[in-house]
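Readers of this paper often ask what the protein records in our data store actually look like. Such a record has a labelled line for the sequence and another for the backbone structure tokens. Nothing more is needed to write down the fold, since each code stands for a local backbone conformation. The record that follows is passed on verbatim for readers who wish to inspect the format.
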Amino acid sequence: MSNSVIHNTARIGKGTRYGNFCVFGKNASVGAGCLIGNNVIIHEGVLIGDNVRIDDGTIVGKSPMRAANSAVTKEQELPPTKIGSGCILGTNVVIYRGCEIGRKVLVADLSTVRENVTVGDFTIVGRGVAIENFCKIGRYCKLETNVYITAYSELGDRVFVAPCVATSNDNFVGRTKERFKHFKGVTVGRGGRIGVNATILPGKKIGADGLIAAGAVLTTDCPDKKIFVGVPAKEFRDVPDEQLLDNQGWEE
């Protein structure tokens, strides 16, 4: 369309449609059969697969901002953003440069995915979720509305995170230079689950099939297949056999 801006090196695949006032930057590549809404910005070098839907007002490939005293945002050359085939990016989503999103991922309205992040195939990133930098999110995960995944975190495959879960990475709470040596997000093993409004403190590990109850504050590691409840969270009992991931019959 004449009211969109397309750089002369940008490539748009066969059958792709786009709305009004879109921008396709230098060397951006959009696959075949995509559906792109209005006011979408595809920054320089972004690689988008086939049959991707991008809704109104979304930005893909945004360069990070660095505050003068930021502890975790680094000055660096970042690779182009990659969006796998079959993905859906909702309205007013922001995907940063240096982020790689797998196939058939849903990133819902108002979510943010920072630089140096990978998101595995078939994962759902819910409405208003924030995934900070240097994170790895596995395949078939579900991050529900308003989840906050702090920088330097890693989630295995089939992890479930309920709404309003908060994670943290700084035991020094922004004080003393010692903190710069110890930044560490959370680690959740394959099939781990975190209940609504739980808080996970810096560096804590939730084992495979571990379950953190709603409203809990996790101050220690949770072993595999254990349920932790309370404030601070304590071991409650084993996860029932019928709830274990390997007993669900799901395809990997």
Q: What stands out?
A: The mean pLDDT is 95. The two ends are 41 Å apart (CA to CA).
